[in-house]
């Protein structure tokens, strides 16, 4: 089985040798980037200048020390969004608005520089290289007409490995999507699980040759409280096209991409060079031992426009103790869980994206 190419990419990004890359080396890199991020936001971001008053990057002697730092929540971004960016508006390339069902509430706005977006393209390039091959055609069933949309960024990442990414957009008409698959001889689909399933269940899908589809990547809507893919959907897609179904996990706050499965289909390998993840008990706010389920929290390590420190996603998962069957030293985050019956001491988990 092919080892995830993310291992060599992450080692390269960290300035480490790919031949003897270890998790210990990776954690040392992350600790240094965390210190730099804390120092950067405390100086450049009005919001974090206030939130981190009394805290210092020098307080981070080990990764465990991060637990003493305050959290950032979606409500913080709603209430004080303009105070987050660390650069001038002239340096912001893309602003993404995350809407909320309640019209009385403020939406969340995330700001990205050109450098921030380039890191996402780079992740899409290397993450997808384990799943598709040069010369293949991928139909991207995600928002794409707008420059620097997630579909546009993915297509750019695919082009770097000689794969043609065709941005179809969200599926409004499954029949139209089937026609696009047939007309362009599509071999791989990327989209929201329910929308990909709507294509598979359409009567016209039987016209797609059984050997044509080589794989599917389902990316659940991370704006949902429980952005997981039910096993029933994965099994139905596998039955329909007799091909592997891979899962992706990411949020706009992460920079669209967070982690993606390798050929083993047994958990996400995450963007260790760009994001530091913690799994916390949502009630005590303490970090849980590896292997235990909790709320996913992350800190950006390389973000320039709008870094986030200990951002609480409201999503639930865990890091697995067992190594990945692909042979990588990278940790694995288990496929996303349905949200347990916790009483969360935070707001902002029922948003919809635009």
TrEMBL record:
Signal peptide: none
Stored SUPFAM superfamilies: Acetyl-CoA synthetase-like (SSF56801)
The protein's name in its UniProt record: Coenzyme F390 synthetase
Species the sequence originates in: Desulfomonile tiedjei (strain ATCC 49306 / DSM 6799 / DCB-1)
């Amino acid at each position: 089985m092919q080892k995830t190419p993310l291992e060599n990419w992450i080692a390269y990004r960290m300035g480490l040798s790919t031949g003897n890359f270890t998790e210990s080396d990776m954690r040392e890199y992350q600790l240094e980037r965390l210190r730099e991020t804390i120092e950067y936001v405390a100086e450049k971001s009005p919001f974090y200048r206030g939130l981190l008053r009394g805290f210092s990057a020098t307080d981070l002697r080990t990764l465990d020390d991060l637990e003493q730092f305050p959290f950032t929540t979606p409500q913080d971004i709603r209430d004080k969004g303009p105070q987050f960016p660390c650069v001038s508006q002239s340096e912001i390339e893309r602003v993404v608005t995350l809407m909320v069902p309640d019209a009385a509430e403020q939406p969340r706005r995330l700001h990205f520089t050109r450098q921030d977006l380039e890191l996402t393209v780079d992740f899409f390039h290397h993450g997808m290289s384990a799943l598709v091959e040069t010369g293949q055609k991928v139909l991207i069933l995600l928002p794409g007409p707008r420059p620097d949309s997630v579909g546009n960024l993915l297509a750019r990442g695919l082009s770097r490995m000689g794969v043609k990414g065709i941005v179809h957009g969200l599926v409004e008409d499954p029949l139209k999507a089937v026609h696009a698959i047939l007309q362009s001889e599509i071999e791989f689909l990327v989209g929201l699980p329910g929308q990909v399933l709507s294509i598979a269940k359409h009567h016209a899908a039987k016209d797609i040759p059984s050997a044509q589809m080589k794989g599917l990547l389902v990316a659940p809507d991370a704006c949902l409280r429980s952005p997981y893919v039910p096993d029933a959907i994965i099994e139905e897609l596998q039955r329909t096209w007799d091909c592997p179904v891979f899962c992706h996990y990411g949020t706009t706050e992460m920079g669209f991409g967070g982690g993606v499965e390798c050929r083993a289909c047994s958990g996400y390998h995450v963007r260790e060079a760009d994001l530091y993840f913690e799994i916390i008990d949502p009630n005590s706010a303490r970090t849980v031992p590896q292997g235990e389920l909790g709320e996913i929290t992350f800190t950006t390590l390389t973000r320039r426009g709008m870094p986030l420190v200990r951002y609480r996603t409201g999503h639930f998962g865990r890091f697995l103790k067992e190594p990945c069957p692909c042979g990588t030293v990278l940790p694995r985050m288990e496929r996303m869980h349905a949200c347990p019956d916790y009483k969360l001491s935070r707001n902002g988990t029922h948003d919809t994206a635009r």
